[in-house]
Amino acid sequence: MSASPVLVVGSVAFDTLHLPSGSHPKVLGGSATFASLAASHFAPVRLVGVVGRDWPGRATRMLGDHRVDTSGLEVDACGDTFHWEGKYASDLSSRETLATDLNVFADFSPKIPAAFRRSRWVMLGNIHPALQLEVLGQMEESGLVVADTMNFWIRGELPALKKTLRRVDLLVLNDEEARELSGEHNLVRAARALMRMGPRIVIVKKGEHGALLFEGPNVFSAPAYPTTEVMDPTGAGDTFAGGLIGYIAGRGNSRHETLRSAVIFGSTLASFCVEGVGTSRLQSVTHGQIARRVGRFQKIVRFGPDAKPR
Amino acid sequence: MSASPVLVVGSVAFDTLHLPSGSHPKVLGGSATFASLAASHFAPVRLVGVVGRDWPGRATRMLGDHRVDTSGLEVDACGDTFHWEGKYASDLSSRETLATDLNVFADFSPKIPAAFRRSRWVMLGNIHPALQLEVLGQMEESGLVVADTMNFWIRGELPALKKTLRRVDLLVLNDEEARELSGEHNLVRAARALMRMGPRIVIVKKGEHGALLFEGPNVFSAPAYPTTEVMDPTGAGDTFAGGLIGYIAGRGNSRHETLRSAVIFGSTLASFCVEGVGTSRLQSVTHGQIARRVGRFQKIVRFGPDAKPR
């Protein structure tokens, strides 16, 4: 039985990356690109986004080869593709934005093709919350709605974000965002406060410290993969979210046990993503490599079931 | 079979705590006190430290009731007990030191009683590395040596610390300390660098993000207990280390599987510690409560062994 496709809406971009290992001009990037490639390892993907006149045909072909349906990728000939330029610190722990050229993305208004309006799995990438809501307004049928957000919208577009959150099933955000949006420092309290805003599932990404999944009274703590081979952290969060919903789509259900495994698979994809520049490693990683690394996650968290005080 | 005792050497203090919930003058504290009480849940403890003329008999009796042998607790009548005063931020995420009165601790030179000089399990609390080495010099026989350290010694006493590390089996430190001591930002690389300095086992404490255990090629990632009931974070790190070595002593071996469970038990004790002011919760927590919380840790990290890409 083939998996039901995942609809991914978000930014498609070129990133100019200044990494400790060297500079890389205009490599493929954007939240929807990373999420789509990650999800495609488990299920077919329907991508909705906008690119400009500089978009190369080979990028469309590459996405197609990874079973990403690009019929919802609008090509706007009036400008160039969204471009971001950033410089990472020598230990990759922080980065500085050198340029954000929105270009055709400035007027992005997602149009969901008729063929995509019934999608069981919907991933709203990190775009303006009003646009996220516009997407949901166009859906004729949807199952699980996953949304990502960021501090920029929490600070500047809180009313719109709160309106969107009421329609979201699963919210993915990082620890600082969870604290800022909830006003709670303690992450357990923060997650509970976020659940009262709408999402029944909250996943808090903690970078090198892994991720926490909250659903009802359940808490799941996933470690980060203890990698030493970080080359480029760009897109790790989008890859996590894409791997997560892709895995859920592949399994065909969002039961709690599935969500836990989905967090591990999302983390695994993210751990591969950062090993290469841009999307390169996401394009090359194999099912066997993913499965082996998931097996290592099992070993990393396992402790004796016989553990007892005496 | 009764467990072989743990020797704990470190500071014994009174802490004046200004917490969001109120102020608490001169409650029992100090690295050795927290570590001893934590370890005592699993094995008898031999405490070596110094206190002053203000030390109350009831504190000695309380420790004795928790099978902490205080015959190595020197009472120096020439001064008062070490006193620390601090104020926590309203969200408990940071603290400010208001006073550090070393008092009799200023000239502390640990003297290991003859009866304690053969101890299979040795915990060197966070004191000057030269004093830690002095302790080891007095031992006639020891098994596993666990040491804690802090930024203060890394910055100011690096040569002494490096000398001590060559005699340490298991080093416990927090993530920032691991980075500073190793010069590596990536924690996996940091741990490997620390292992080259002497310890064959390194445990990196990450506070609310749990802990990482490194031994040879093995990595174990333990979550923090997802508590919402933090009242006083003081002593959590010392409690973790004490619970860790106490559990190892209780099991009677330091095999890798034991170390993994020991990290979970140390984390569990620390999660109880922070629920009360000072050592109060460490004194009241029961074996049943510890065992139940360890069971919850199992649930928090578990994910499907059948997890597979399709």
Key terms for this structure?
homodimer, 310 residues, UDP-N-acetylmuramoyl-L-alanine:D-glutamate ligase, 13 strands
Concise overview:
Two copies of one chain form a homodimer. Chain A is an alpha/beta fold. Chain A is built from eleven helices and 13 strands.
Characterize the structure shown.
Two copies of one chain form a homodimer. Chain A is an alpha/beta fold and 310 residues long. Chain A has helices spanning 31-39, 57-65, 129-138, 151-156, 158-165, 175-182, 187-195, 236-251, 256-273, 280-284, 287-301; strands at 6-9, 13-19, 22-29, 45-52, 68-76, 82-88, 95-101, 118-124, 141-148, 170-174, 201-205, 211-215, 218-222. Chain A has one domain (13-301): Ribokinase (UDP-N-acetylmuramoyl-L-alanine:D-glutamate ligase). Helix content of chain A is 36%, strand content 27%. Chain A has a nine-stranded mixed beta sheet, with helices on both faces. In chain A, β2 (13-19) and β3 form a beta hairpin. At the A-B interface, α7, β13, α9 and α11 of A face α7, β13, α9 and α11 of B.
